[in-house]
Amino acid sequence: MQNNQKGIKLAIETCNFEVDNLHHLELTPGNYVKVSVSDNGCGMNSETLKRIFEPFFSTKQRGQGTGLGLSSVYGIIKNHGGTITVYSEEGVGTTFNIFLPAITKAVKETKKNSRKIVSGNETILLVDDEAIVREVNQEILSELGHRVFSAGNGRQALELYQEKGNEIDLVILDMIMPEMSGAEVFAKLKELNPKVKVLLASGYSVEGQSAKIMAQGCNGFIQKPFTLELLSNKINEICNYSA
Description:
Layout: E1 2-3, E2 8-19, E3 30-39, H1 46-51, H2 70-79, E4 83-89, E5 93-101, E6 123-127, H3 131-143, E7 147-151, H4 154-164, E8 170-174, H5 182-192, E9 198-202, H6 209-215, E10 220-223, H7 228-239
Parallel strand pairs: 6-7, 6-8, 8-9, 9-10
Antiparallel strand pairs: 1-2, 2-3, 3-5, 4-5
């Protein structure tokens, strides 16, 4: 793949990879699939490389986006028993290597899921700091028949809930946000309405801080990226409307 405007090339390679005790990768020895994504772009300096997997780190200026969401990528890969490494040089390019455990078992025939995508007419407050994620999910929820309010950060979410709380049936809350975290927003929402219904969304598994929020009365958890079917059924389970 090539960007004709800047002449940047993107190469994607896959191969089988065996990890033994001699490798310095933080992986259990065994067979893995290696996916390498390389470009010949501007590259990164050593200081940037140290921070690229931090949740709120970005080299982009305010208003220019929030980068590639590499912290979410890192979390998803680690949750699947793999790891990701990166090599980069300024003026040369960057290579990301993804290692995921290989499955050697024979593929069994699976039955099609009989569950259907459930539509509804609830009013939902969607809270996510990534604009593109908000826009896509707002469109999905609207297609499902829901009325949607959206907020780009915790303070906006609380202001909207204070104003529209009597109309809102469910809050879909991003776990990791700058300034005010999902945990802080959840606590404030519970103060405003102890019976508030919240669906927690995160690129990480339901462990650690997510588990703490669930223990405090959060109504459900959904891991990013999620499918339309999973989202619709989660909303159905929490809001208790019939299909």
